[in-house]
Amino acid sequence: MQLQLPAGTVIHICENPRVVEAAADAACVHALVCTSGSAATVVLALLDALAATGCRFAYHGDFDWPGIALANRIIRRYGAQPWRMGAEDYEHLTARSQAEGIPQLPLDGQPVSASWDPALAPAMTALGVALHEEVTLDLLLDDLSGRT
Which residues form the DUF2399 domain (predicted)? Predict the structure, then answer.
């Protein structure tokens, strides 16, 4: 696969197809690739081809242990920057979702350390709430639309 994009183009990567749907509905201007859960071979082939052109990546996924594990893999493989994936982001989003009355999902499973933020896993363990990407949708769309 050969792609031609200017070197340094930032490609945003998300985990949930709902982010892509909302970005399309909002006519967002930044490039976005969705892993649709754990990145399949076809997604990795696309990201490999984009990386070969000199693209840079920003990754966002779910704040649950499988989501952190996937983020670790994408960040390590592509040198991606975490995109609204820090401990402060998690704490803010947890508080905001509680204030908005969004049902809280329990954080189950074994903790996974985030390679990019050593404070994230302890914050997640302390609060015990799993957050899916939809909780962050408005902020992600702001970034993808160029409003921030």
Answer: 6-144
Let me know: does 92 contact 99? Beta carbons within 8 Å. Answer: no
Best CA proximity match to 46, nearest among 32, 29, 58, 62: 32
Q: How confident is the model at residue 147 (pLDDT cuts 50, 70, 90)?
A: low
Contacts for 82 with CB less than 8 Å, ≥ 6 apart: 58, 59, 60, 71, 75, 114, 116, 117
Among residues 145, 91, 77, the alpha carbon closest in space to that of 120 is found at 91
Q: Give the C-alpha separation, 67 to 15, whole Å.
A: 8
Enumerate the domain spans of the chain: 10-145
> Residue written as tokens 């404070």?
119
Tell me which long-range contacts 96-100 makes (C-beta under 8 A, separation of at least 24).
96/135, 97/129, 97/131, 97/135
Q: What is the CATH number of domain 10-145?
A: 3.40.1360.10
Residues 83-133: pLDDT tens digits?
999 999 999 999 999 999 999 999 999 999 999 999 999 999 999 999 999
